[in-house]
């Protein structure tokens, strides 16, 4: 009888052990819709935690037996959530996981994330470069991909650090993390909205300034309109002996604007030019000589007369033209051009002579301002930017006229068709003979 009672007890206890298994509620932790991959996320022992679950359907899984304590390393938000409200659960009550255990509601300044874990989220920061995820938010970190993974996408260009209370590895720190966690109660980050290069800081140490990624960097120059194609900084090296090296010192901004990337960097003598002077002028900490123009061998505040800055901010001494007989009143150059702009290119000399004041100027070499007098005056002058040629043909200066056309002082050095001297002489002779005959 005692034996039978004992066996019955054993059987009963076996039965009760088997049937005491109390499954959890369904929770949507399956990330693949076919097993419980995803349900261990957030636990120290991810695979051990995942093994506590059994697949149900869709994205649903449930804890196989809530009466067994999951333990510190396997407990996570999904275990808490699945076993919460199960009467005989061995887990602490509560649908969320905070710190080291389940909790019924996230503490102050915390909110449950997508895997039921209470975290201290950062503020929204506009670091998404795609507008669909947090690509861009890792910028400035040594390990950019790791830094980016700390963010949760919000909307538009906004992302936020998922959990500011988590310690961030040195190589993953950047300006966006500092900016997002700055001012967040419970943040484990050093206070400050910018990244100094080693940690968050309230401001950059002069002369460094914060760039658009909230990282303290050496000061860039001001925008200068030196891009010749509106897509890169081609054109910004103009005027330097080593133009390609000078150009490489610039960062493209937008439109025709570029800026010197780092004005604190020393520029080699052969790479200096007007655009570098102009961009770094007035920038705190600049290693360049102050001044917006380049004169001789360095930056200068202004060009020494009679030099003046050309279109590339380089001081140029004027290149005077040859005397040409275009003054029609022997007191000014009103006869040298069709309008005030062209007339203004000339300086009166004496008698009927005038000369182009500066054949190197943009005004003198502009196609619309060219005429025969400008061509003839500037022809052969070293440093002239006026097209070569002693006469004007079609729309530019030319070294010869097309067949059948001539140019001389008589027709203002403009190639025109008409009676050539040979024809005139022939007529003169013809008339002379005609005169003799009558
Ligand atoms: C800001 O500076 C950091 C570090 O130099 C750099 O990685 C990042 O690209 C910069 N951001 C911008 C927008 O230039
Ligand atoms: C960046 O961090 C991730 C995650 O911690 C790591 O797997 C990867 O090796 C790191 N890369 C570099 C270049 O440090
Ligand atoms: C910009 O123009 C220069 C020539 O002026 C050319 O060499 C360079 O490739 C151009 N850049 C782009 C991006 O088109
Ligand atoms: C221009 O500078 C670059 C970079 O420093 C250098 O490689 C190149 O040899 C220089 N060219 C000339 C003509 O000095
Ligand atoms: C001056 O005259 C030239 C030639 O006729 C013309 O092309 C140019 O547009 C004129 N400039 C002004 C400012 O009137």
From TrEMBL:
Keywords: Signal
Superkingdom of this protein's organism: Eukaryota
Signal peptide (from-to): 1-20
The protein, known as: J immobilization antigen
Originating organism: Tetrahymena thermophila
Gene behind this protein: SerJ
């Amino acid at each position: 009888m005692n034996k039978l009672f004992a066996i019955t007890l054993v059987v009963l206890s076996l039965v009760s052990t088997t049937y005491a298994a109390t499954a959890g509620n369904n929770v949507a932790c399956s990330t693949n819709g076919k097993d419980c991959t995803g349900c261990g996320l957030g636990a120290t022992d991810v695979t051990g935690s995942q093994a506590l679950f059994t697949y149900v359907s869709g994205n649903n899984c449930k804890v196989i037996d809530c009466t067994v304590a999951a333990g510190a390393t396997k407990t996570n938000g999904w275990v808490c959530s699945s076993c919460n409200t199960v009467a005989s659960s061995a887990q602490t009550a509560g649908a969320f996981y905070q710190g080291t255990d389940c909790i019924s509601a996230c503490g102050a300044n915390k909110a449950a994330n997508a895997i039921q874990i209470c975290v201290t989220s950062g503020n929204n920061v506009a670091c998404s470069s795609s507008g669909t995820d947090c690509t861009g938010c890792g910028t400035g970190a040594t390990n950019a991909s790791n830094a980016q993974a700390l963010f949760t996408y919000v909307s538009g260009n906004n992302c936020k650090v998922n959990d500011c209370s988590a310690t961030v590895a040195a190589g993953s720190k950047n300006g966006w993390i500092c900016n997002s966690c700055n001012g967040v109660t419970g943040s484990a980050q050093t206070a400050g909205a910018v990244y100094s290069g080693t940690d968050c800081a309230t401001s950059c140490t002069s002369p460094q300034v914060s760039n658009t990624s909230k990282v303290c960097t050496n000061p860039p120059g001001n925008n200068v309109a030196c891009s010749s194609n509106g897509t890169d900084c081609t054109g910004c090296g103009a005027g330097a002996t080593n133009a390609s090296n000078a150009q490489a010192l610039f960062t493209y901004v937008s439109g025709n604007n570029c800026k010197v990337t780092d004005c604190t960097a020393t520029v080699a003598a052969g790479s200096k030019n007007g655009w570098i002077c102009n961009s770094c002028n007035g920038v705190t900490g600049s290693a360049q000589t102050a001044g917006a123009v380049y004169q001789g061998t360095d930056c200068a505040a202004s060009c020494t007369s009679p030099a003046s800055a050309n279109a590339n901010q380089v001081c140029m001494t004027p290149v005077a033209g040859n005397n040409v007989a275009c003054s029609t009143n022997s007191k000014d150059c009103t006869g040298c051009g069709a309008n005030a702009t062209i007339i203004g290119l000339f300086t009166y000399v004496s008698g009927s002579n005038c000369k182009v004041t500066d054949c190197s100027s943009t005004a003198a070499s502009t196609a619309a301002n060219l005429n025969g007098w400008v061509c003839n005056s500037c022809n052969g002058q070293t440093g002239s930017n006026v097209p070569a040629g002693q006469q004007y043909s079609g729309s530019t200066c030319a070294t010869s006229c097309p067949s059948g056309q001539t140019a001389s002082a008589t027709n203002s050095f403009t190639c025109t068709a008409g009676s050539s001297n040979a024809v005139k002489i022939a007529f003169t002779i013809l008339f002379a003979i005609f005169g003799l005959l009558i």
